[in-house]
UniProtKB/TrEMBL annotation:
Record-linked InterPro entries: dUTPase/dCTP_pyrophosphatase, UCP030140
Record carries keyword Heme: no
Enzyme Commission code: 3.6.1.23
Protein name (Swiss-Prot/TrEMBL): dUTP diphosphatase
Record GO terms (molecular function): dUTP diphosphatase activity
Keywords: Hydrolase
Coiled coil: none
Regions crossing the membrane: none
Pfam families: dUTPase_2
Enzyme category, top tier: hydrolase
CDD domains according to UniProt: NTP-PPase_dUTPase
Keyword Hydrolase set for record: yes
Domain of life: Bacteria
Length: 164
């Protein structure tokens, strides 16, 4: 995945949103962290992976992918906000043991919290790596993610124009 290209697209979108809402001099870090946690909650909800009380199937893959890339938006945005937009991720690590989706969601939540505390490059990379591990469990390839990111990025611009 061409992460650098996505970082550039994210920078443009963030600037556009901040200008539109007169927020250029505001610290948006914690609001973006909460937005990210909420998006990942929405993602978990669409997969229904934790709903042991229900037999209803998960949402279609396309819906799950859309939720997943909302999370990518906020992760990249947090990186930019922290000056970590030059991060180069190592090639995707495969988990050595079979991890459940439930477990991986909880791990990602923990990673986000760690990054919020330290704002370090190391924790930023771990957060993205574990989110990409979740993508793997969900059955998404890097290409799926890149394409879905590009189309949601465009939707986000349109929504700003429409006074969203
Ligand atoms: O500074 C920002 C703020 C938002 N976004 C993007 C991330 C995400 O792709 C979208 C917000 O999520 P969503 O589209 O789910 O918006 P919502 O307001 O939560 O949607 P809804 O009203 O449909 O629940 O805006 C950014 O990229 N940068």
């Amino acid at each position: 995945m061409n992460l650098q290209k996505l970082f550039e697209m994210q920078k443009g979108l963030d600037q556009h949103i901040e200008q539109n809402h007169n927020l250029e001099n505001e610290n948006l870090f914690d609001r973006k962290v909460l937005a990210l946690l909420v998006e990942i909650g929405e993602l978990a909800n669409e997969t229904r992976c934790f709903k042991f009380w229900s037999v209803k199937p998960s949402s279609p893959q396309a819906t799950i992918l859309e939720e997943f890339v909302d999370g990518i938006h906020f992760m990249l945005s947090l990186g930019i906000e922290t000056g970590l937009s030059e991060v180069d991720l190592p090639s995707q690590k495969q988990s050595e043991t079979e991890v459940s989706m439930n477990e991986q969601f909880l791990k990602v939540f923990g990673r986000i919290n760690d990054f919020r505390t330290t704002k370090s490059r190391e924790h930023f990379e771990r957060m993205i790596q574990d989110y990409m591990m979740l993508a793997n469990l969900l059955g998404f390839s890097n290409e799926d993610i890149e394409q879905a990111y590009i189309s949601k990025n465009e939707v986000n611009y349109k929504r700003q124009q429409e006074g969203y």
